[in-house]
Amino acid sequence: MIRIWGRPNSICTKRVLWALVEVGMEFELTLASGTMGPEGHISTGAEPYGSVDEPWFRAMNPNGTIPVIDDGGFVLWESIAILAYLGSRYGAGTLLDGRPETLARAVQWMSWTNEHLEPALNTQILELRRLPEGQRTPGAADEAGEEIARSVEALEAQLARTDYVAGEGFSMGDIPTGAAVYRWRVFGQWGRRLPHVDAWLARLAEREGFRCHVAPAELHV
Ligand SMILES: N[C@@H](CCC(=O)N[C@@H](CS)C(=O)NCC(=O)O)C(=O)O
Fold first, then answer.
1. Cβ 52 under 6 angstroms from ligand 1
2. pLDDT tens for residues 145-179?
3. Which of 7, 10, 122 to mutate to test the pocket of ligand 1 (most atoms within 8 A of CB)?
4. CB of 36 closer than 6 angstroms to any ligand 1 atom
5. Within the chain, what is the greatest distance between any pair of CA atoms?
6. CA 114 to CA 117: how far, in whole Å?
7. Beta carbon of 65 within 6 Å of any ligand 1 atom
8. Residue 3, CB half-sphere, CA atoms under 13 Å: how many?
9. Cβ–Cβ < 8 Å for 50, 41
């Protein structure tokens, strides 16, 4: 049984939860965060789930970020590394298909998601939901939404050529990208016509890991 520390409304934790469903592994999730708790974001006065500043947690992950996994004593942080681990250890035929090209393309899109979508997505959710109204910056959420819309054109071009980001089959590469693009969509920043992205999201929505850990809008707030 894999242990995971994180929170269900963290986009990086969702990646790991979804991947665990894909590989059919049991896991135990321990809620941990320095910024969010059951009542919301700390900027609203809410108590965080905690643990991330404790010495035992920092010994696992000196950055104090989530998610972290422990698989029989093998401890790992950084969600993309965790997906790569799950893919290569448990994900033959589900997260990866054994082809170096699929692995490389999956990593390409996972890195692209971190570089091109995550910073703006983080701004968007803070500004639209998590920060108290008085602490929001006028226009920042729209600007972030526009930035994502521009970046997503690259994904639209890829999905015009292949059904999934790394080829004709689903792979771990679809997880971070799918969760991010879906979150952007949940918050209404859809705007442009992106038929291939739309069709791909509809395909991802049929997967159990997506339905459980990504689809519910309340899991993004
Ligand atoms: N690049 C890291 C990012 C880790 C990260 O910043 N995680 C966020 C949640 S998505 C976090 O730790 N937030 C602060 C907290 O909840 O304490 C990854 O992919 O795992």
1. yes
2. 889 999 999 999 999 999 999 999 999 999 999 99
3. 10
4. yes
5. 51
6. 6
7. yes
8. 11
9. no
Q: How far is the CA of 6 from the centre of ligand 1 (A)?
A: 8
Q: Which residues of the chain are under the pLDDT cut of 50?
A: none
Most ligand 1 atoms within 8 A of CB, residue of 5, 12, 54 to mutate: 12
By the 8 A CB rule, do 97 and 171 touch?
yes
Ligand 1 centroid distance, CA of 79 (Å) = 8
Going along the chain from its start, the domains and CATH numbers come out as 2-90 (3.40.30.10), 100-207 (1.20.1050.10)
Between CA 141 and CA 145 the distance in angstroms is 6
Torsion of CA 92, 155, 187, 211, to 10 degrees: -20
Ligand 1 close to Cβ of residue 35 (< 6 A) = yes
40: left (phi over 0), alpha (psi -120 to 50) or beta: left
Contact call for residues 159 and 165 (beta carbons, < 8 A):
yes
User: 21 C-alpha to center of ligand 1: Å?
Assistant: 20
Q: Residue 190 gets which letter from DSSP?
A: -
Enumerate the β-bridge partners of residue 36: 41
Question: How many angstroms separate the alpha carbon of residue 44 from the centre of ligand 1?
Answer: 19
DSSP designation for 47: P
Three-point CA angle 196, 199, 107, nearest 5°: 70
pLDDT for the residue numbered 56: 98
